[in-house]
């Protein structure tokens, strides 16, 4: 009884190696004895070849051709006998001794010489063509990369970010909240440098009326560089123009000593 | 094919003609230039060492190399030994794609046909052909019945065959 042929779905999967391993044996067995299915499989392979060949062409990696040629040469040198044998087999037999044969041989030799020259020329041109093709592929790759660069630079949706050198050490900052009416002040500072034992930071209020700076508290940072001054004793009703921080002797100072470590003007909104 | 007998020059010419195609197919599957180059070298070295594996009756050389490249790339992707012998690959090509011009024209047509396939068919072909999934794995991934997966892949190829043969 004639066995049923392999359904085309299964031939496709077989050709794609997309079958489960336990299904393969039955298909192979049938293919061995069925020319019709083998032909159908060959047609499927032809279809798959088209799918494969439709892949967008990419240039070879730099040096890939050279690596291939070198590997080829190395392999040929190991198995050179076969090459030599094929060359030797092309040699013609000994010429006959009569004149007619001599003439014929001379003509043949001339033809061979001409053919050899022609072959050399063809090879040289082939080499040149291969080099030009390789150069064209590399040029195409360079063009594609240049286009990619241009696309990135001109894309409206691209994010543009300016990067600057990262500071190894963060700058100290301070934030003062001041209520002039009742003389309330809260001050918080971060990333302050550590001080010698006989020094302290001192906070100052610079009055808006041009009077001398008013000392607003002494403080030293904790190991993380943070410090705060909360509700120091201050006169009420003194509008501030600015705040400043200086380094003073441990007991504090009646007037600020340069340089000013931190300074901040009171903004129109009050902070 | 002139590589019979170990002609390095002929082999280099073969590489120049088809190297980019073989590499591109392997790269499409593997998405890794280094592995793709390894596959490309393996394919050409199989031809170099066993030129009798390809005979003209098996189809066009380019098509044969294309199938070899795809199958070896899938083997590499799955980290398995080659699942078929080069002698196993026999193909019938409906078209003569001997010249570069003809080949380029044909490939444009093939791309157009594949692009116009229903999305489910495109995905099934993509997963089976370029990702090397079995039909069971595709069914598990998509949640579709096995029979549906098979039909989609076959239908996609039949559509392609009809379009190219038309």
Any overview of this molecule?
The complex is a heterodimer of chains A (271) and B (166). Chain A is elongated and about 125 Å long. Chain A is of the alpha+beta class and 271 residues long. Chain A is built from 6 helices and 7 strands. The model of chain A is unreliable at 81-99 (pLDDT under 50). In chain A, strand 1 and strand 2 form a beta hairpin. In chain A, strands 4-3-6-7 form a 4-stranded antiparallel sheet, with no helix packed on it. Chain A has a 3-stranded antiparallel sheet with strand order 1-2-5, with no helix packed on it. Among the domains of chain A are: 8-53, no CATH class; 101-141; 173-265, Immunoglobulin-like. Chain B has 166 residues and is mainly α. Chain B folds into 2 domains: 1-93, Rna Polymerase Sigma Factor, Chain: A (Orthogonal Bundle), CATH 1.10.1740; 96-166, Arc Repressor Mutant, subunit A (Orthogonal Bundle). Helices cover 69% and strands 0% of the residues of chain B. The longest helix of chain B is centred in the first third of the chain and has 23 residues, at 8-30. The mean pLDDT of chain B is 84. The interface between A and B is large, with 54 and 71 residues.
Structural features:
heterodimer; A: 271 residues; alpha+beta; Immunoglobulin-like; four-stranded antiparallel beta sheet; three-stranded antiparallel beta sheet; 7 strands; 18% strand; elongated; B: 166 residues; mainly alpha; Rna Polymerase Sigma Factor, Chain: A; Arc Repressor Mutant, subunit A; 2 domains; 69% helix; 0% strand
The CATH architecture of the largest domain in chain B:
Orthogonal Bundle
The CATH class name of the domain at 173-265 in chain A reads Mainly Beta
Helix content of chain B: 55-70%
- Counting helices, strands and paired strands, the structural category of chain A is alpha+beta
The description of the largest β-sheet of chain B is:
none
Supply the CATH architecture of the domain at 173-265 in chain A: Sandwich
- Main beta sheet of chain A: 4 strands, antiparallel
What spatial form of chain B do the alpha-carbon principal axes imply? globular
Counting copies of identical and different chains, the oligomeric state is: heterodimer
Order of helices and strands of chain A: HHHHHHEEEEEEE
């Amino acid at each position: 009884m004639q066995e049923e042929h392999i359904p085309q779905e299964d031939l496709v999967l077989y050709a794609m190696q997309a079958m489960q391993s336990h299904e393969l044996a039955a298909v192979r067995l049938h293919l061995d004895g069925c020319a019709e299915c083998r032909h159908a499989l060959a047609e499927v392979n032809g279809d798959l070849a088209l799918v494969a060949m439709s892949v967008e062409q990419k240039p070879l990696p730099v040096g890939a051709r050279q690596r291939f040629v070198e590997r080829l040469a190395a392999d040929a040198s190991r198995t050179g006998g076969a090459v030599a044998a094929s060359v030797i087999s092309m040699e013609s037999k000994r010429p006959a001794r009569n004149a007619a044969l001599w003439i014929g041989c001379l003509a043949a030799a001339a033809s061979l010489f001409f053919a050899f020259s022609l072959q050399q020329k063809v090879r040289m041109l082939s080499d040149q063509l291969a080099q030009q093709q390789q150069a064209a592929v590399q040029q195409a790759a360079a063009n594609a990369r240049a286009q990619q660069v241009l696309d990135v630079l001109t894309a409206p949706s691209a994010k543009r970010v300016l990067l600057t050198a990262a500071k190894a050490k963060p700058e100290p900052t301070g934030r003062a909240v001041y209520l002039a009416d009742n003389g309330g002040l809260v001050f918080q500072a971060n990333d302050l440098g550590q001080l010698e034992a006989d020094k302290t930071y001192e906070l100052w209020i610079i009055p808006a009326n041009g009077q001398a700076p008013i000392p607003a508290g002494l403080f030293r940072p904790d190991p993380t560089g943070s410090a705060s001054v909360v509700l120091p004793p201050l006169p009420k009703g003194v509008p501030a123009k600015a705040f400043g921080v200086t380094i003073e002797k441990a007991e504090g100072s009646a007037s600020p000593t340069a340089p000013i470590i931190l300074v901040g003007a009171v903004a129109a909104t009050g902070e | 094919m002139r590589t019979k007998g170990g002609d390095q020059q002929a082999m280099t010419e073969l590489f120049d003609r088809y190297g980019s195609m073989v590499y591109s197919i392997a790269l499409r599957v593997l998405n890794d230039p280094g592995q793709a180059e390894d596959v490309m070298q393996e394919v050409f070295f199989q031809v170099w060492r066993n030129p009798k594996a390809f005979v003209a009756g098996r189809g066009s050389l380019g098509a044969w190399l294309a199938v070899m490249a795809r199958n070896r790339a899938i083997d590499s992707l799955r980290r398995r030994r080659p699942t078929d012998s080069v002698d196993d690959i026999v193909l019938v090509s409906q078209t003569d794609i001997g010249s570069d011009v003809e080949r380029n024209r044909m490939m444009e047509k093939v791309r157009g046909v594949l692009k116009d396939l229903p999305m489910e068919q495109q995905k099934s072909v993509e997963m089976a052909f370029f990702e090397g999934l079995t039909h069971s794995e595709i069914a598990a991934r998509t949640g579709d019945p096995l029979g549906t997966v098979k039909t989609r892949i076959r239908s996609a190829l039949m559509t392609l065959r009809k379009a190219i043969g038309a």
